[in-house]
Amino acid sequence: MNDQSVITSDDRHVRTGKFFARVYRYRNLLVQRWWVLLICLGLSLAAETLYLKYSPAIYISVGQMIVSIKLNIQQGSLYTEELSNFLGTQAALMQGSEVTQRARDRVASQNPNLTPKPVLLTVNVLPKTTIFILRASGESPEYSRAYLQACMEEYISLKKQMAARTSDTTIEGLTVQLLKLEPEMQKCDAQMQSFLSTNDIALMEQVNGLGGYLTSIYQQLASAQSESDLLQTMTLDQNLLLEQGRSTVMAGSPNLGMGNSILVNAGLQGQSGLISPNTIGTEYLAIKQQILLLKADRERYAAFLKPKHPQMVTLDQEIEKLGRVLEIYRAQSVEQLDARKSALALQITNLETQTKIRGKENLEISRKAAQYERLKAKAARVQSLYDQLLATLQTLDVNKEISPESVTIYEPASDGIPDKTKFQKGMIMAGLLGLGLGMVILLLLDRVDDRMNSFTELEELFDEDVLGQIPREKKTGKNLIIPALQPDDQRHPFVEAYRNLRSSLLYMTHAEPRPRTLLVTSSVPGDGKSMTATNLAITMAMGGSRVLIVDADLRKGSLSNRLNVEADTGFAEVFLAGTNWRHAVKQTAIPNLSLLPRGTTTQRSSEFFIGPVMDQFLKESAQEYDYVIIDTAPVMAADDVTSLAPRVDGIVFVVRAEYTSSRVAHAALNMLYQRKANVLGLVFNSVHVSTGDYYYYYRYQDYHKA
């Protein structure tokens, strides 16, 4: 999670840096090549001035029209896309080829003496109104006015023709639809008549009543089936007790009891020999209860009376008598229960038969009723559509001559007047065109310009480490070179930049052992390699190191002038005359800093650098000094560097901001790598402090004040 957030933050900073680097590059491009925009602007304005001077004058005629629309929108209708874009549609129609061609023909027929001229017609709409402002611009004021007036009149004529064509087309289409619907209506009527002739409409209209009657039968069947199942599972005593409870509950009800209703449904009510189940059941239960009471008394008397006691005999006789009566009532109750079961079975059979018959009748009637309703609905739809089309046709026929749009010429075409804005518009357009052309040229120049303007661009173009950035310093007075560093130098950002370069070389982690012989070079002259070598040597000497700076540019070396050292002999004499190099070394005003000047100018420096004398010099000087810094010719200017580079410990390559070509610098570095040279890194020289990625030293100059 944290790693992802760090990567995202780094990407955001990189994108920000690239953006500001690009902004600075474009700003620098404008500052350096502002004259391109000025030249393009001047040329375009001059060309437009000449064009306006020799082009004919333009005259403008203005007219206004009011186009109002009246819409009859039924409730629930929606606005169409044409309505929402009504004003734009009308403006396009006024400028259409149909109107303009008619206008030309009208002018030619009404004004044969006018010579046709090209006319530009523009149409605008006043905000929040339907007032159209028409402008005709042309070389002839008379023709422009006549053409504009003809356009307005032809627009009105075209609108009338379009409305008439639309009405006629609509009426024709509606008539065709009505003719198609009439046979359909006749077909629907014939189907209705055929259906009614073979079906009873009154019976179909009673389909709901038949359905209710069928539902009642189903309810009776369910009730009878439930009671029959209950009787099959109950004993005689349970049935009599249940029947007695029902009789008690329904004693005050005017309706028949459940038992009687069953008899009624079974068709058995009033048959001879049947005793009311309520009476028989009551008597049966009462006698059974009396027997139980007598038996209880007998058991109680048996405790103190003998079986032959008259009272005991009387009780036994009474119990026996009531037992015979109980058997009679029991037999009658059983017969009555069987009769009830038979009646329920008969009722269930009758109800099932009725449900089957009535169900088929109800299904057939429902099917015919549904068919009848579909025929009625279809006939109603066809009739409704026919009535609507007929009403619409009558309305269109009545209002055919009434235009829903009112088009009025509010102001006729005015006399042609010179276009006073032609010059201003032409100059503005020419100025914009010139600036645009200048910007395009600048962008093309930027595409072919591969010079680095900022540290971000340098990092994108090179893989080598950047050892330091040297801020840009202006030349003072008439000096052709920037003065070298001094012990009490007040150019604090300049001094601190070289101290940073020194630290980068002293604490390089990938170079073991630490490089002691350093070669400072660049790709082309003017990159600032000599200034970098001089100030780097001064900074290292100020740090307490014994430093020897060698002017190995035997063609144009000038280190003696930079360090204010007079020298008649130097590095060239060491090779030419075999002079001991120690005798040519000069002490500078900077403590611990010695200079081996260039000496006599020669064009044979490459031969010297590949000889054994150079190897001996490098070996001996590295033993006597802490650091030996060699300033040579640029890589692309001479072969000196490529001959000397493999013999030193490391190379410091100088790239100048806004000056060095990246292609040339890459070519120079590739030549060094081919010689197996050790390039320690790059020095970005003469960096403009206003770039977005130059963050240090110059912004904190107040820190160095006393």
CATH H-level superfamily of the domain at 495-704: P-loop containing nucleotide triphosphate hydrolases
DSSP helix fraction: 55-70%
Overall outline: elongated
User: What's the oligomerization state?
Assistant: single chain
Structural class computed from helices and strand pairing: alpha/beta
Low-confidence parts? 71-81, 252-277
Rg: 62 Å
What would you note in describing this structure?
By secondary structure, this protein is α/β, with parallel strands linked by helices. Among the domains are: 192 residues, no CATH class; 210 residues, P-loop containing nucleotide triphosphate hydrolases (Rossmann fold, 3-Layer(aba) Sandwich), CATH 3.40.50. It is 59% helix and 11% strand. The strands form two sheets. It has an eight-stranded mixed sheet with strand order 6-13-12-7-11-8-10-9, with helices on both faces. Helix 23 links the parallel strand 12 and strand 13. Helix 2 runs antiparallel to helix 13 and helix 11 packs antiparallel against helix 12. The longest helix is centred in the middle third of the chain and has 89 residues. The two termini are 48 Å apart. About 5% of the residues have low confidence.
